[in-house]
Amino acid sequence: MTQKAETIEPLRLSRIYPAPRALVFEAWSSAEHVKQWFSPETFTVPEATVEMRVGGTFDFCMRGPDGTDYWNRGTVTEVRPNERLVLNLRAEGGSGNVLFTARTEVDFMDDAGGTRIDIVQSYVFVDLTLAPMMVQGAPIGWSQTLDKLGVELARMTAA
Fold first, then answer.
1. Are 62 and 76 in contact (CB under 8 A)?
2. How far apart are CA 34 and CA 145, in angstroms?
3. Are 155 and 126 in contact (CB under 8 A)?
4. Does the pLDDT of residue 42 top 90, yes or no?
5. CB environment 117-143: b (16+ within 10 A), e (fewer)
6. Where residue 159 falls among pLDDT bands split at 50, 70, 90?
7. SS3 label, residue 25
8. Mean pLDDT of the 17-23 span
9. Cα 128 to Cα 106: distance, rounded to the nearest angstrom
């Protein structure tokens, strides 16, 4: 029996970093930077490919604490340096099956504290058994991921 895809309300997040927009955008634009921060607290990113152009690849592997790899494979669909980035991603389970798709929109804006990013992530469930549980944890996962982005920005600033 084929499962029907299901959509849910988008996740919306904002964060302010004490760094210029160009630096915050750079952290999203390079595989080496993405490897440092694009995962929740207990996960790592051992592999990433980032081609910052429309149609370019945006793939990264999140490795769980148990060693399981969860690939997110996607495409850059919009890029305006230092202003906006849109990604279409497919989240894969440990066996490579697609769990859900996610459209991730990131806007970069000047703020009195530095740079504010606004993220809107819209989901379509493909696997109706695992995907809803994973997406339910997205607000916490994104919060931890954005904390790691702050650490990477501090490292980039100091370098």
1. no
2. 10
3. no
4. yes
5. bebebbbebbbeebbeebbeebeebbe
6. confident
7. helix
8. 97
9. 26
CA-CA-CA-CA torsion for 49, 7, 12, 45, nearest 10 degrees? -30
In sequence order, which residues have a C-beta less than 8 Å from that of residue 1 and are 6 or more positions away? none
36 is written with which tokens?
């440092």
**Residue closest to 98 by CA, chosen among 75, 67, 130:** 130
| Residue boundaries of the structural domains of the chain | 6-158
pLDDT: is 6 or 124 the higher one? 124
Indicate the pTM of the whole model: 0.90
By DSSP bridging, strand 44-50 and strand 58-63 are antiparallel
Q: Which CATH architecture has domain 6-158?
A: 2-Layer Sandwich (3.30)
Tokens representing residue 103 in the block: 């459209």
The strand pair at 114-125 and 6-7 is best described as antiparallel
Q: Is the model more confident about 135 or about 49?
A: 49
Q: Collapse the DSSP code of 107 into the 3-class scheme (helix H, G, I; strand E, B; otherwise coil) and give the result.
A: strand
The Cα 50–Cα 83 span in angstroms is 17
